[in-house]
Amino acid sequence: MSIFATKPIDTIRAEASVTGEHSLKRVLGPVDLVTLGIGAIIGTGIFVLTGQAAAANAGPAIILSMILAGVASALAGLCYAEFASTVPVAGSAYTYGYATLGEFVAWIIGWDLILEYALGAATVAVGWSGYVVSFLHDFGIQFPAAFSAAPGTVVNLADGSAVTAVFNLPAVIITVLVTTLLVVGIQESARVNAAIVIVKVAVVLLVIVAGISFVNTDNWAPFIPQNTGHFGQFGWSGIMQGAGVIFFAYIGFDAVSTAAQEARNPQKDMPIGILGSLVVCTLLYVLVSGIMVGLVPYTQLGVAAPMAVAIDAAKSQAAGTAWAGLLSIMPFLVKVGAIAGLSSVMVVMVLGQTRVFYSMANDGLMPPWAKQIHPRFRTPHITTILTGIAVSIAAGFTPISILGHLVSIGTLLAFVIVSVGILVLRIKRPDLPRPFKVPAVFVVAPAAALVSLALMYSLPTETWERLVIWMALGIVVYFLYGYRHSRLRGTQTR
Question: How far apart, in whole angstroms, are the C-alpha atoms of residue 316 and residue 272?
Fold first, then answer.
């Protein structure tokens, strides 16, 4: 049987309809799904990467980078929304690929999604660690520098000395806590996520409202700084590379689709969750990025906490005004929002990874233990715990820059495959009921694929090299295990 054999959609739907203690629990409504999306999207991107991309790539035109990344996400989001309403099961892009492009492509997507979800969670854990260490410092608590960053990282201390880090302990701690929450249950996880989302959205809105009065329009000129002669360093290529880097900020809406098998009415609610969260976050991102580069010259934002730099600039201008009191506590609130925001991103990323593994195990491409459901909590507990261990190791021992680029390129590759898959399904199964349809699909889907490819192209060469090595390893694993244990292959060869 061909490695490109597809899994019948009727079979996928039938497997998803099974209920009982060995199935996932359908408890999520539209509000839960939207907050899951917002919880995954608003995190490292808005609190860290926005300022860094402005300083190194786009300047004030980071606003255009945000819009470009948002458009790419919206195009892909429409494709995800159609798939999620048509094939409402766990697994996200993996399941969609299996239904349209075949088993081997599905495996490639599933392997690729490890870059997005597991390494995405690790990236966020590292960012969380940085904010927690800073937060503790504000209260006079000095966290041991040797245990606050990846091995080999030089941490500069307040007295001017430096320490070489051994591993990132706070990143490991938050991963353990998130893993425990996800083992306990999806409904409990969704409630915690919703509470965190309220906190971090409130903080983002406060930054917008408080900062807009102190924007210096001179900081927006030149809006597009002249290119330095190197691709990606300002000019239009800088806008492009800036979009590729901060695309990480938009990752998350697709993770909503991994929870389709736990939604009460997935055909109706999945498009709401995916597109609703994307619209809300894009609007907030554009506003915040514009205000940040308006408060201070973009060259000052290439730091670990760029939003704090922007708030400090506004605070110095607000002396004696009605905003002075609020702005004086804004750095504290921003750190609280960042810590809360990054926590919820981790919840959704680890959730997404375990549901992909669950679907792959159901198809025989992963070992049977990956699909085991806890009889009381109704969660894939073994997969969740093992994913948590892997994320802890990556977060504790890998620098954030390497993790961030790998997550971006992995996500963009998944977007390309989903965009192509939606076209294939429209051609092969035009009769299939589609509660949500991509408008102008033969324009939108190719555009989604091309924009995603363009953003992939803008990423550094070493990121491509790591992607190729990771995919080569995945192909070896497929032929050693997945090819031999595939349920689809076993069914059709008997």
Answer: 42
The domains located in the chain, with CATH, are 9-450 (1.20.1740.10)
Please give the Cα distance from 276 to 280 (Å, whole number): 6
Indicate the length of the chain as a whole number: 494
Q: What is the CA radius of gyration of the chain?
A: 22
DSSP 8-class letter at 160 = S
The Cβ of residue 173 has, within 10 Å, a number of other Cβ atoms equal to 17
Tokens at 80, concatenated: 């995800």
Instruction: Quote the CA–CA distance of 454 and 448 in Å, as a whole number.
Output: 10
Containing 362, the helix (H) or strand (E) segment is helix 324-362
Distance CA 225, CA 374 (A): 55
The answer, yes or no, to whether the previous bond of 297 is cis (omega within 30 of 0) is no
> Do residues 388 and 350 lie in contact, with contact meaning Cβ atoms separated by under 8 Å?
yes
Note the Cα 359 to chain centre separation in Å.
20
- pLDDT tens for the chain, 494 residues long, are 688 888 888 787 777 666 655 566 777 888 888 888 888 788 766 766 788 888 888 899 999 998 888 888 888 889 988 888 887 776 678 888 888 888 998 899 889 888 778 888 888 888 788 888 888 888 888 888 888 887 877 777 767 778 888 888 999 999 999 999 888 877 777 788 788 888 888 888 888 888 888 888 899 989 999 988 888 889 988 998 888 777 767 777 777 877 777 788 888 888 898 889 888 888 998 998 899 899 889 888 877 667 778 888 888 777 777 777 777 887 788 788 878 878 888 888 888 888 888 889 989 999 998 888 888 877 888 999 999 999 999 888 877 667 767 777 888 888 888 899 899 889 988 888 888 899 999 999 999 999 888 878 877 888 888 889 999 999 999 999 999 999 887 755 44
Residues contacting 86, CB < 8 A, separation 6+: 9, 425, 432, 433, 434, 435, 436
Distances (CA, A) of 56 to 18, 112, 299: 51, 28, 8
β-bridge partners, 164: 154
Question: What is the number of helices (H) and of strands (E) in the chain?
Answer: 19, 2
